[in-house]
Design goal:
heterodimer; A: about 100 residues; mainly alpha; 2 domains; about 50% helix; B: about 140 residues; flat
């Protein structure tokens, strides 16, 4: 059910397991700090496309590619890490 | 925020500054096929140009993250998007690759596979677990 049904928490499970697995497989047993979890996703919450040409009109395609990836990684990390005061994805794209 | 974004390496540097460089990174990639098929973003646009032309959506299987029933072009496009992510996280050391691209339904996915991969990958999500260990700042 987790695999095939929409809205059953696949992403939530992924993020939880990503953290748990990191702890399980880590060779650094002395570290107690949870890893920085960077969610790179095109999920519903981040459904709005990045208006890359509008945001970076002077950038070439390669630069826009990198910035699109960077923006999703950065925002996904902030949300995954439970940071407070993070704007919504649409708000981020507008500012 | 978006207008100030530089590149993935810069983004990781920002995260290191905020959270501390002594932490490891886990990059979890999910819903990549939506990026391939739905989003009109630069990265997506690029991967859609793989091969002879734009990749056509073949059915709705991708909605559930399945690659099994999609064509080779779609799988190639998804892999290329993964490459983009990997390149973006070039400073992240890949310890154990964990991307599942099962060729047949049920093959390579699911909890049994997760166990088989020693806890690395799971339930046919497009997952990558990457991380790196760095020296440096302490975490608040």
């Amino acid at each position: 059910m987790i695999v095939n049904a929409p809205g059953t928490g696949k992403t939530t499970l992924l993020l939880w397991l990503a953290t748990a697995l990191e702890i399980l497989i880590s060779s650094d047993d002395t570290s107690e700090k949870r890893p920085v979890l960077v969610a790179f996703t095109y999920n519903t919450e981040m459904a709005a496309s990045i208006p890359h040409k509008l945001l970076w009109p002077d950038a070439d395609e390669d630069q826009r590619i990198k910035r699109c990836v960077a923006l999703r990684m950065l925002y996904g990390a902030l949300r995954s890490m439970g940071c407070r005061g993070v704007k919504t994805w649409p708000d981020v794209l507008m500012n | 925020m978006a207008a100030a974004i530089h590149d993935p390496d810069w983004a990781l540097g920002i995260l290191e500054a905020w959270f501390g460089t002594d932490r490891e990174f886990v990059v979890a990639a999910d819903e990549l096929l939506k990026g391939v098929t739905e989003r009109n973003e630069a990265a997506t646009t690029k991967v859609l140009q793989v091969g002879d032309g734009p990749v056509q959506l073949q059915g709705g299987v991708w909605l559930y993250g399945e690659l099994d029933d999609t064509g080779e072009d779609m799988r190639d496009a998804a892999k290329c998007l993964v490459d983009v992510v990997l390149a973006a996280a070039s400073r992240v050391r890949l310890r154990k690759p964990a991307l599942t691209l099962p060729k047949k339904r049920g093959e390579g996915g699911g909890l049994n596979s997760w166990l088989r991969w020693r806890g690395i990958c799971l339930v046919q999500l497009r997952v990558m677990v990457l991380h790196h260990a760095k020296d440096g700042l302490s975490c608040p």
